[in-house]
Amino acid sequence: MNIVKWISENEITLLVEEQSVLEEFGDYSIKYYKHPKVGSRVSDKYFYIRYKSNVKYSSGPYEFPDNPVLESLCTILSKLDFVFWGTFKTEIAPLHFMESMQRKNKIDKSFLYIEAGEDVVKSSKLENA
User: Fold this and answer.
1) pLDDT of 37 higher than 90
2) Residue 71 lies in a domain
3) Does this model's pTM top 0.85?
4) What are 43-96's pLDDT values in tens digits?
5) Torsion angle of the four alpha carbons 95, 99, 101, 106, in this order, in degrees rounded to the nearest 10
6) Backbone CA torsion sign across 111, 2, 30, 43
7) Buried b (16+ CB within 10 A) or exposed e, 20-51
8) How far apart are CA 34 and CA 54, in angstroms?
9) DSSP string of 53-116, one letter each residue
10) Which domain holds residue 60?
11) In whole angstroms, what is the distance from residue 11 CA to residue 9 CA?
């Protein structure tokens, strides 16, 4: 299972179990890194995608401004069957970003997600289906 663990202002943190998916990033001109932009966490399973956007990732809990660069990257990751992590309700998670994109009709397909503390991957429900 490959998971989008965190999204920050300029970086997406990925937990990659099936590293063959990294080869597909080239098809989308996505460059990935073994080291985070800030910090020193290094693991054979963690990879980082850096992106440049002049848009803040989140302006508050469950509030996500339009961010075409991040939206495009997350759409591609969803297409590659990445699972979006849902942390505890007090934190802003990749799952919440994807739900926001669905509510705004920026994606018209379901996406995979997993809630913190659960073992079962679920598929989002399309609100407008």
Assistant:
1) no
2) yes
3) yes
4) 889 999 999 998 888 877 778 999 999 999 999 999 999 999 998 766 788 999
5) 120
6) positive
7) ebeeebeeeebeeeeebeeeeeeeeebbbbeb
8) 24
9) -SS-S-SBTTB----HHHHHHHHHHHHTTPEEEE--TTS--HHHHHHHHHHTTS--S--EEEET
10) 2-123
11) 6
Q: Provide the domain count of the chain.
A: 1
Residue 111 domain flag? yes
Confidence (pLDDT) at 72: 96
Domain-embedded: residue 129:
no
Residue at 67 is within a domain = yes
Which residues contact residue 17 at a Cβ distance below 8 angstroms, ignoring those fewer than 6 apart? 1, 2, 45
